[in-house]
Amino acid sequence: MAFNNDELVPPPWMTENFFAIALGKFEHDPKLKINSIEIKPATLVGDHFASIMFRVTAEYDIPKYKKFNEKRVMIVKTVPFGDGNKAEMLKNSPIFKTESKMYAQVLPEMERLLHAAGDNIKLCPKLIYQSYEPAPIIILEDISVDGYEMSGKPVDYETGLKIASTLAKFHATSMYINEKDMDLSNIFNESFVIANIPNTNLTFMDVGVMPNMELLLDELKSWPDNDLVVDKFIKMKGKLVKAMKDVYGRKNQSIYSVLNHSDFHFKNIMFRYEKERVESLQLLDFQCCLWATPAIDVNYLLYMMLNTEARERRQDVLLHYYNEFSSTLKKIGYLGRIPTLLDLNMELLINGAHENLMVFCMILFQFMDFSDVTDTDELFDLNKDKTDQAAKSRALFKHPRYQEILKRELPRLIGLGILG
C-alpha cells in the first residue's frame, strides 16, 4: 500500500500530552491519562489532497469515571507543516474554518432536526475535538472500525438512490437552519473553484481546468465529422471561467439556494454493507461547503457519484432526490415556500454551465491513477513543467469509458442548449 509522503511522519505537536488534552475534553475528565498511542497514515494515495490525515489509536484511563484501558480509534485531520508548496498554498485557506464550523455547529443541528422528526440518520462521523492551536485540527471518530468502507468507484442505481436521499436531507435541513438558526448564506460564501490561489492572481479554473480544455479541444477536433461539436465547445470554453464565477459566486438568477457539500464525489462517502447491499452511509470532507444553487451538488451526484448505467436513469434519480427533499422540509416543520420540481429543473438549466465542468473536467477524476503520486506537494507546484501532466490528460481523454461518456452526453448537452 502506498501512502502520501507528507503523512509518513506526524507533526511534532502530535504527542501523548496533546491527546490527553483532546480526549480529556471529549471524555469530560481533565485528568485523563494516556497509556499508549499509535499513529499511522489514515488514507491511501489519491484519497484526499487538501490536508494531512492520520489514524490514531489511543489507550487511556478516565479516573473521574473509574474507567481504565479504554480504547479509541480516531482520524486526525490537520494542515501540512513545513515549507512545501502544499503547506504554503493551504496555510491561509478558509477550508479548515469551513469544515470546523460544519462539524461543530451545522451537522449536529441537521442531525438533531432529523432525529426530532423521527429519522435516526447519522450524516457524518462524530467530532471528538477541534482547535486552531497549535494548528488547525479536527479529530473525528474512525467509522471504519464500525464496518464502514469506501467504494473506490462510482456507484450503481440502487446505491445512488440512497446517496440522493442523504443529499436531499442535507439540503432540506440547511434551508431550515438558514431561516431559523444561522445565516448560512453569509457563513459559507467562499468557493475554492473561483478564489485566488495564495500569492497569485490565478484560480483553480485557471490552473486546473482551462489547460485541459485546450487538450480536450484537440481530441474533439480529431473525431470525424465533428465540426458542430467543436464549434460549440470553442464557444463554451471561451465563457467557462466567467460562467463558473457566476455559478459559484451566486451571480446567476436564483430560484432557491441550499448549503452545498460542493465536493460531493465517491471518495467523500463511506458505506456499511449488509449481504452486499448498502445498509447505511456517512458523508465525509466538508471543507468546500457553499451556500448556492442546488445544481452544484446535484450535478456532482449525477456525474461524480453515479456510474454510467445509473446516470442513464437520471430523471428517476432527480425525482427521488426531489421527493425526499420536499418531504423532509415538511417533516422538520419548514414554514417557508417549498421549492417545486420545476424549480429544481430550472436551477439545473440556469446553471447549466456547471454541467459542462462536470462532463469535460471533473468526471475524469474517476479514471485517474494516483498510485504513483506519493508526493502530493508536486500537485501544488505551479512552476512544475506540465509536459508529463499534459500527456496523462491526453491519455485520459482517449480512455474508452470516458469516450463513451462523451458520446452519450454531448447530444444531450447540445439539445438542451447547455453546450455552446
List keywords for this structure.
CHK_kinase-like, EcKL, 14 helices, Aminoglycoside 3'-phosphotransferase, Chain: A, domain 2, CSON009903 protein, two-stranded antiparallel sheet, 420 residues, alpha+beta, Kinase-like_dom_sf
Q: What is the average per-residue confidence, as pLDDT, rounded to a whole number? A: 92
Taking strands numbered 1, 2, ... along the chain, how are they ordered across the largest sheet? 1-2-3-5-4
Q: Number of DSSP helices?
A: 14
CATH architecture of the domain at 149-416: Alpha-Beta Complex
What best-fitting shape do the alpha-carbon axes yield? globular
Q: How much helix, percentage-wise, in residues?
A: 40-55%
The level 1 CATH classification of the domain at 149-416 is Alpha Beta
Can you tell me the residue ranges where pLDDT is under 50 for at least 5 consecutive residues? none
Strand content: 5-15%
What is the CATH topology of the domain at 149-416? Aminoglycoside 3'-phosphotransferase, Chain: A, domain 2
**Helix and strand pattern:** HEEEHHEEHHHHEEEEHHHHHHH
How big is the Rg?
22 Å
**Largest sheet features:** 5 strands, antiparallel
Describe the fold and architecture.
The protein has helices at residues 16-26, 85-90, 95-116, 157-180, 184-187, 204-221, 227-248, 295-305, 308-311, 314-331, 341-350, 353-360, 387-397, 400-415, and strands spanning 33-41, 52-62, 67-78, 127-131, 137-141, 258-260, 269-274, 277-283, 290-292. The chain has 420 residues and is an alpha+beta fold. The protein has a domain at 149-416: Aminoglycoside 3'-phosphotransferase, Chain: A, domain 2. Helix 7 crosses helix 12. Strand 2 and strand 3 (67-78) form a beta hairpin. The radius of gyration is 22 Å and the shape is globular. Helices cover 44% and strands 15% of the residues. The mean pLDDT is 92. It has a 5-stranded antiparallel β-sheet. Pfam families: EcKL. It comes from Culicoides sonorensis. Residues 138-331 form the CHK kinase-like domain.
